[in-house]
What we know:
- By secondary structure, the chain is α+β, with helices and mostly antiparallel strands.
- The chain is built from three helices and nine strands.
- It has two domains: about 10-60; about 65-155, PH-domain like, CATH 2.30.29.
- Strand 2 and strand 3 (about 70-75) form a beta hairpin.
Amino acid sequence: MIYHHRQTGFVMIVLFVIGFFVFVDLLVLGIVFWFDQLNTAVLLLTVALMLLMVVLGVLFSALTITLDPQHLQWQFAFGFWKRAIDLADIKTCKRVRNPWYYGWGIRRIPGGWLYGVSGFQAIEIELQDGKRLRLGSDEPGKLLAALEKAVAAHRSI
C-alpha cells in the first residue's frame, strides 16, 4: 500500500448532531405542548427523520482514500459508497480548491463528481475518457505526490 489516509469530517458530524437535536427539540416540544393535537403520522415522520440524520451522520463522518500499485480507492465510513479506479485510467491529477457552494458528501459538480467530508482542498483527477472526479483531502499535497508517483510507476511498467 502506497498511501492510506482516513479524514474525519468533524464539521459534518457537528452539523448532523445539531440537526438531530433540532428534531429532538421539535419532538419534545410537540409532545409537551400539543400532545392532544399530535397526529401519529407526524410523530413517526419526526422519528424517521431523526433516524435518517443519525444514519447519514455516521455514513458521511469519514472518507478513507487508499492507493496501491494498481488502484486508487475511496470510501466513506464503514465502506459506504466504495469506489476504485485503475491507475492506468488516470490521465492527469492536480491539486484544487473547491468553492464553498460545492459542499461535502457526494456531489455532482461541473465536469464530474466530488467526494468529500470536510474542508475545501481536493485532488482533481481527469480520467482517460475525459471524466473528472475530485477527492477531498486534508492532506492534498501528500495524496498528490503519492498519486503522481504511483501513476508514473504504473506507466513505466
